[in-house]
Amino acid sequence: MKTSIFAVVAGLCFLFLTGHNGFAEPTGENLEEQRCGNWFSAGYGAFSPDGDLADEDYEGGLNYTFSYVRLFEDYLGFGIDMNRYTCDNGAIILGRRYREELITTGIELLLLMRPKDQGAPDLQPYVGIGLGLYENEFSYDWVGQSSWAGSGLGAGFVAKVGIRFFLTNRMYFAVNAKYFTNSQQVQVLDANGDRQSVDWKIGGRTAGGELGFSF
Predict the structure, then answer these.
(1) pLDDT in tens, 117-168
(2) How many CB atoms lie within 10 A of CB 176?
(3) Domain count, the chain
(4) Among candidates 73, 50, 51, which has minimal Cα distance to 60?
(5) Which has the closest alpha carbon to 125: 100, 161, 73?
(6) Which SS3 state, helix, strand or coil, does residue 52 take?
(7) Distances from the Cα of 124 to the Cαs of 3, 61, 64, 112, 164, in angstroms?
(8) Disulfide-capable partner of 164 in 4, 60, 115, 174 (CB 3.0 to 4.6 Å)?
(9) How do residues 171-193 score in pLDDT, each as one tens digit?
């Protein structure tokens, strides 16, 4: 279900980026207001884990986002996304509930681009690429047996696509989709009991919405 949501959002964004020409013509105050150089938004959506998490049958979770964008050209801007991703994996083992959980807190730096236009349209598609730094908090709890929690740092590549719908001169609603990698080095024991470092891939995909304003 979450993969379907991601595909729908990504498809809409692609259509607007490649073929949409129905932008509203800006006039007067509308043009001046929508060209403000700072955008701030809060978002909520679905997170679908990828890589090693998918291999271990982790279920999709949630994504919470706070975003800031600063335009330095009509078509180019710099963005900061602060995110929190959650997912888990549960089972019944020997009659007792077993649950693993991963909570990732990340900061992502993005270069954002939108179509260059002669005015400020009510619909603004955009794409972004960048890098992310993540703190990964992993825990498990086997009721009545054992529990453990630990954290580490990861980093990776980020790609984002979305559409902003301006509701007023300053306020907008947006839908977006994102793909990010999140690689963390962890120490594991091999078959001989020796420690070795492996690259744990715990990124994924998100799809969601956000509400924001320009100033």
Answers:
(1) 645 567 889 999 999 999 999 887 776 665 666 778 999 999 999 999 988 8
(2) 25
(3) 1
(4) 50
(5) 161
(6) helix
(7) 24, 28, 22, 12, 5
(8) 174
(9) 999 999 999 999 887 665 555 65
Average pLDDT, the chain: 78
Cross-strand pairs, 77: 71, 112
CB 120 within 8 A of CB 35: yes
Tokens describing residue 70: 């600063």
CB 156 within 8 A of CB 130: no
Joined tokens for residue 10: 């990504």
Tokens of 194: 């020796």
Give me the phi and psi of 142, to 5 degrees please.
-110, 100
- Cα–Cα distance between 70 and 38 in angstroms, integer? 5
Q: Which residue has the higher pLDDT, 146 or 90?
A: 90
Q: 203: domain range?
A: 2-214
CATH number assigned to the domain comprising residue 106: 2.40.160.20
The pLDDT, as a whole number, for residue 25 is: 39
Structure tokens at 116: 């260059």
pTM for the whole structure? 0.76
Angle at 6 between CA 5 and CA 9, to 5 degrees: 85
Go through the chain and tell me how many residues it has: 215
